[in-house]
Design brief:
- By secondary structure, the chain is of the alpha/beta class.
- It has a single domain (9-343), classed as TIM Barrel (Alpha-Beta Barrel).
- It contains eleven helices and ten strands.
- The chain has helices at residues 44-55, 73-82, 114-128, 147-159, 173-185, 208-215, 249-256, 260-276, 280-288, 304-311, 321-330; strands at residues 16-17, 24-25, 28-31, 60-62, 94-99, 133-138, 163-169, 190-194, 218-222, 296-299.
- The strands form two sheets. An eight-stranded parallel barrel has the order 3-4-5-6-7-8-9-10, surrounded by five helices. The protein has a two-stranded antiparallel ribbon with strand order 1-2.
- β7, α5 (173-185) and β8 (190-194) form a beta-alpha-beta unit.
């Protein structure tokens, strides 16, 4: 049976303005980096997450060319859902994709040259069978490609109608100021920045968040749960069927991050969350969204139960000064920012 969306879907979330643009985004966005891949089609479990998200007012889905495995399969699978169950809702959806990491062999399948960004978006559109995406991102800062060239590519993408808006991801404050200027000179708005940000990865507080506010650029924080490390499933042991328990390179990296100092922090944070009547995951999301200029928290989820728990964070968004002070005792930097190299000046 074809999916039919919940008619009350827009009563649940308070949409936030993206910078000073005309675009409103949901406070929680669902990303398709993990759990939406597969060679043939999307699993029913993954599809149900998309449906549940949309039923609860999540209008924004975030992808990238390389999400898989195999790379590209998340876009391909999402494209199938878009052309069946979501077909009549295209104008109610904000679909984003990106290019900047390795996608194909040779000198033109990585980083941020015009050649790569333009060809990659063409491939993404084909995979999703779309005429345009709503937001296209330069996925990371490329120290070897002139920023002017990347800005030219983003401008061409807008002018050709292949994306409605453009954004950048994991750029430092300085790089953001420069890119914003270059885009402005070309008559284009830098709509949004997508940095990593969480209770234990606070690099954007140094200057980026203020820069974005000053430049009136929106901000969507990815990995606000630190890839699941800001949930209680690693508190006692490493639970099965989790990102850390998987058998891959990322799991090895994450396992090394489960240090004594990390455990001390999440134990403290978990206690504060309980006092607020929230789970640790929920408090982590409410905390990211405490900045009035934060447009959205970009989460991942393994199943509908996790997704629902994350969306329920919206029932408790207010922090007292005392709570924030208490949280600051534990919300200190852990070395978990795998994307830090991109934002080095
Ligand atoms: P999160 O920090 O939200 O981590 C998601 C993981 O947290 C889930 O897969 C799950 O882990 C766990 N989780 C989620 N909700 C719960 C819950 N209620 N209870 C317990 N565990 C929970 O985000 P991601 O790291 O997945 O990134 C989110 C999105 O951000 C991506 O899909 C992508 O769109 C974007 N992104 C962008 C990047 C960029 O460079 N621009 C880089 C990385 C991500 P488990 O699977 O272990 O159950």
């Amino acid at each position: 049976m074809t999916y039919s969306a919940n008619t009350k879907r827009y009563l649940n979330l308070n949409y936030r303005r993206c910078g000073n643009s005309g675009l409103l985004l949901p406070p929680i966005t669902l990303g398709l980096w993990h759990h939406f891949s597969g060679k043939q089609k999307m699993s029913d479990k993954a599809k149900n997450m998309l449906f549940q998200a949309f039923d609860r007012g999540v209008t924004h889905f975030d992808l990238a060319n390389n999400y898989g495995p195999p790379p590209g399969s998340a876009e391909e699978n999402f494209g199938k859902v878009l052309h069946t169950d979501f077909k009549k809702y295209r104008d109610e959806l904000i679909i984003s994709t990106k290019a900047g990491y390795h996608m194909w062999d040779g000198p033109y399948g990585n980083w941020s040259s015009k050649k790569y960004l333009i060809s990659s978006l063409d491939q993404s559109l084909k995979r999703m069978r779309l005429d345009y995406v709503d937001i296209f991102y330069s996925h990371r800062y490329d120290p070897l490609t002139p920023l002017e060239e990347t800005a030219d590519a983003l401008t061409q993408i807008i002018n050709q109608g292949k994306a409605l808006y453009v954004g950048i991801s994991s750029y430092s404050s300085k790089q953001t100021i420069k890119m914003n200027k270059l885009l402005k000179e070309r008559g284009i708005r830098c709509l949004i920045h997508q940095p990593s940000y969480s209770l234990i990865n606070r690099w954007i507080e140094k200057d980026l968040i203020k820069t974005l506010k000053d430049l009136k650029i929106g901000c969507i924080a990815f990995s606000p749960l630190a890839q699941g490390m800001l949930t209680n499933k690693y508190l006692i042991t490493i639970q099965k069927k989790t990102r850390i328990s998987e058998n891959n390179e990322l799991a090895i990296k994450l396992k090394k991050m489960r240090t004594k100092s990390y455990l001390m922090k999440i134990k403290g944070l978990d206690k504060i969350a309980k006092k607020r009547g929230q789970s640790l995951a929920q408090m982590a999301l409410s905390w990211v969204l405490r900045h009035p200029s934060m447009t959205s928290a970009l989460i991942g989820a393994r199943n509908v139960k996790q997704l629902d728990e994350c969306l329920d964070s919206q029932n408790n968004l207010i922090f007292t000064k005392k709570e924030l002070k208490e949280i600051d005792k534990y919300a200190k930097e852990e070395k978990i920012n795998l994307w830090a190299n991109s934002s080095k000046d």
